[in-house]
Design a protein that fits this description.
Blueprint lengths: L4 E8 L2 H13 L4 E6 L8 H9 L6 E6 L5 H11 L5 E5 L4 H11 L6 H11 L2 E3 L2 H13 L8 E5 L2 H13 L9 H12 L8 E2 L3 E2 L6 H13 L5 E5 L10 H10 L6 E4 L5 H12 L4 E2 L2 H21 L2 H19 L1
Parallel strand pairs: 1-2, 1-3, 3-4, 4-5, 6-8, 6-9, 9-10, 10-11
Antiparallel strand pairs: 7-8
Length: 335
């Protein structure tokens, strides 16, 4: 099976992983712009591929599977320029002694110290992931959503437990899930007084709208969080099992999000037809959606990391301008 056309390019040192990745992306309905498999890199390497994809108009995110990097300084010089305009997501294997031994026998790769790769990636803005699932989850988030302008996330949920799970994963990765400002808390209290959200909803962060949630309640909550300048990204967790929640809540949130440049990721837990449908509907509207709260939190962490890197090097605003142009062009194509 071939994936549909899309914004993510794959560059892989393992042909078998590459073929499996295409199968995975086709099944998840993730789109691919270009696919490159270069094995032991006898005459071409990562720097050439990254430069090529930098100028490829169909590519917005590069997914890079590697076992080693031979031209380390050249890679860093090129990656530093590429990440000003396009995110690079790296899955570096051969982290352990056994993995490094396997990499050497597989492609002749000398894996090197894993800590060196960590530091090098951080210095040039490459987002490193730890496993295959996170590889595609993070790529999807960076392709669909703008990077966060800061380190504070808000969680809007219809279920307390998954909200706590997302908060734990965020905090464990250094993303703040802090109590909202007095002004934002008062806005939620006003919704309670007006009967627009349950009086027993919790709104300190996470915002738990409880099992009484409706589509309108999600819309009210999302609007408040999108308008809060101290909230830099939003995780929306809506479980389709809840009786009063209609599927139009997806459209309501997506329509609101178009008016703001603030990242939103979604979660609906489950693998039945309805869960798959809700997540697919989010993604058709440009919001990456995940099957677990932890996956959604990891995606938000990547958006935060990339945003903070761009701010550090002074390229956050230029990147946002490019993102706005991509979003406008996509809207024109859809209409």
């Amino acid at each position: 099976p071939r994936p549909m056309p899309g914004p993510m390019a794959i560059v892989t040192q393992s042909g078998a992983f590459g073929a499996a990745a295409l199968d995975f992306m086709a099944g998840r309905q993730l789109g691919v712009s270009k696919f490159v498999s270069f094995g032991n890199k006898v005459d071409v390497g990562e720097p050439e591929m990254l430069l090529y994809l930098l100028h490829d108009k169909r590519t917005r995110v590069m997914l890079l599977y590697i076992e080693s990097i031979k031209a380390g300084r050249e890679f860093m010089d090129v990656a530093r320029e590429v990440t000003k305009e396009k995110p690079i997501v790296a899955l570096k294997s051969g982290k352990t002694e056994a993995g490094a031994r396997a990499a050497l026998s597989h492609t002749g790769a000398i894996a090197g110290s894993d800590k060196i790769y960590d530091v090098a990636f951080t210095q040039v803005g490459v987002v490193r992931v730890r496993d295959m699932e996170e590889f595609f989850d993070v790529g999807k988030a960076l392709a669909f959503q703008p990077p966060a302008s800061g380190n504070n996330a808000a969680i809007l949920t219809s279920a307390g437990g998954p909200g706590i799970m997302a908060a734990d994963e965020c905090e464990s990765r250094g993303v703040n899930v802090k109590k909202f400002s007095h002004e934002t808390l008062q806005k939620f209290e006003e919704l309670k007084r007006e009967g627009k959200i349950p009086s027993f909803a919790t709104n300190l962060n996470p915002v738990d709208l409880t099992g009484s949630v409706t589509s309108e309640m999600f819309e009210y909550g999302a609007k408040i969080l999108l308008e809060d300048p101290e909230v830099h990204g939003i995780i929306v967790i809506g479980l389709h099992h809840i009786p009063a929640l209609q599927e139009d809540y997806v459209d309501r949130i997506a329509n609101l999000a178009r008016n703001y440049i603030k990242p939103i990721v979604a979660c609906d837990v489950g693998e039945t037809e309805m869960a798959l449908y809700v997540r697919h509907r989010f993604e058709k509207l440009g919001i990456p959606a995940y099957s677990s709260p932890e996956d959604a939190a990891r995606a938000m962490d990547a958006l935060v990391d990339y945003g903070l890197y761009l701010k550090k090097i002074g390229y956050y605003e230029p990147y946002l301008e490019m993102f706005k142009r991509h979003r406008a062009a996509a809207s024109i194509l859809k209409s």
